Amino acid sequence: YEQVKQWEDSRWQKRGEAYDAFKEKLAARLLEALYRVEPQLKGKVSYYELSTPLTTVHFMNYGQGEIYGIDHTPKRFHNSKLVPKTEIHNFYLSGQDIVTVGIAGAMASGLLTASSIMGKNLMKKVL
Question: Does residue 14 sit in helix, strand or coil?
Fold first, then answer.
C-alpha cells in the first residue's frame, strides 16, 4: 500500500499520469516474469489490466486494499491452525484462509470442511 499511498486521495480512473506510469511499469515487470516462465506467450498477450490496492479500496471499501484475508506469505501456509477441524469440539473453520485465496479456494475449503465434519472424502464425489 505504501507504493500507492501518495494517490489515495485521488479518484478512480482520475489518478493522473504518474499513477498510470507506475501501473504500467509494474505491469511490464509482471509480464516479463510471466514470459520468463512461459516464453511462448511473449507477443501473444493482447490485453492486460493491473489494479492496485487503491482499486480495491474504491470497489470494496477495504482500508488499504486488503481484500484477501490473512497475508499471503509462505509462512501462512505452514500455520497448523489453518485447518478445518479445530481443537474446540465441533468447531470447524472454512473459507479461503484455510486453503488459498479467492473463490476457488473458498469453495475447496467448503469441501474440505464438509469432508472433515462428515468423515468422508467429498473431493472424490466432485472430481
Answer: strand
Sign, CA dihedral 70-76-77-81, equals: negative
Any idea what DSSP says for residue 88? S
Q: How far apart are CA 81 and CA 73, in angstroms?
A: 15
Tens digit of pLDDT for each residue in 104-126?
888 999 999 999 999 999 988 88
- Give the HSE-up count for residue 91: Cα atoms under 13 Å, Cβ half-sphere: 6
Joined together, the cell numbers standing for residue 37 give 516462465
How far is 6 from 17, CA to CA, in rounded Å? 13
pLDDT digits (tens, 9 = 90+) for 58-107: 988 877 777 777 777 888 888 888 899 999 999 999 988 888 878 888 89
Whether residue 83 contacts residue 95, with contact meaning beta carbons closer than 8 Å, is answered with no
Around 95, how many Cα atoms within 13 Å sit in the side-chain half-sphere? 7
Tell me 11's DSSP state: B
